[in-house]
Amino acid sequence: MEAQENNSLRKIIHIDMDAFYASVEQRDFPELRGKAIAVGGSPDGRGVVATCSYEARKYGVRSAMSSRTAIKLCPHLIFTRPRFDVYKEVSSHIRSIFYRYTDIIEPLSLDEAYLDVTDDKQNIGSAIDIAKKIKQEIKDELDLTASAGISTSKFIAKIASDFQKPDGLTFIGPSKIVPFIEALPIEKFFGVGKVTAAKMKKLGIFNGADLKKWKQNDLTKQFGKSGKFFYEIVRGIDNRSVKPNRISKSVGAEDTFENDIDDIEILNEELQKLSERVSRRLNDKEFKGKTMTLKVKFSDFTQITRSTTLDFYTNSFDIIFEHASSLLEHVDREEKRIRLLGVSVSHFFHEKPADNIVGQQLTLFP
């Protein structure tokens, strides 16, 4: 069973801004242009990098990397503080450009979104032409570049947008989807992180063609519920629609470690990375929450969660990390090693522009 026929009728674009936060900083501050910069983190080695410029990426610097590691890789790295109010304003302008062509928009964060242009407002017809126009308008109006992926499904459009970054445009038509997926390295598949990729490679799965040889039952045995997703996606089956106005009940991040950890300092370093990712996702969604939850899975696969609820709403990295670290400190580890940590925030106040300041106690809320 290959890509389903109804997929071939859809026209989906995934727009992904290029090094968004860093590009905005370089645009607004000419002295940073052409320099290796990191948004987030600090030159004293504390904290983690939210994102970085392409000049920094050449040295191996990546988002969610500790500042300490980033400095070792790139000693001349320049650190800048995030300006989320500016990023939100720019993101709102980008969104207004999208709405010129379609109302079916699914934002994933401040810097990326899916657009369904099957029936576009301007009756252009060609998804490629629409993507070109959007990219050009972003460049002309905001002096920023975006990459676009175009296909008949969300999965392929998202992968395609990353294919020729920065300032790329990649179209994967219906007849090219299956060959494209078969040649795709397994670590490029959505939902395949470092640990899953390592497990797949041990099983002899290095690309889509290798994955396609496996039966659904066997994939489910190895990868649980994700097995069905892997089985379908490698055959080009992805019927997920572009869903505007998604409502999140919680925002979180988790990592399974390649080696189980019992060193509390290393565990706290991992919590820093997770807390930064959660803070960034909350800011992207313009959410603030008051319930912090820590998830811990031990080496024997037993799992616990611990939560605390604040008397104010926040999306601050410092506050999220402080409480996640405190929750971990009170976990009775019984000398067991930890294989997974997760951090999430829930119980939201949905922030509107100029609403409550981070850390401010609220007495009234919607």
From TrEMBL:
Its EC number is 2.7.7.7. CDD domains: PolY_Pol_IV_kappa. It is found in: Cytoplasm. One of its GO terms (biological process) is error-prone translesion synthesis. Keywords: Coiled coil, Cytoplasm, DNA damage, DNA repair, DNA replication, DNA-binding, DNA-directed DNA polymerase, Magnesium, Metal-binding, Mutator protein, Nucleotidyltransferase, Transferase. Its cofactor is Mg(2+). It catalyses: DNA(n) + a 2'-deoxyribonucleoside 5'-triphosphate = DNA(n+1) + diphosphate. NCBIfam families: PRK02406.1, PRK14133.1. This is DNA polymerase IV. It comes from Pseudopedobacter saltans (strain ATCC 51119 / DSM 12145 / JCM 21818 / CCUG 39354 / LMG 10337 / NBRC 100064 / NCIMB 13643).
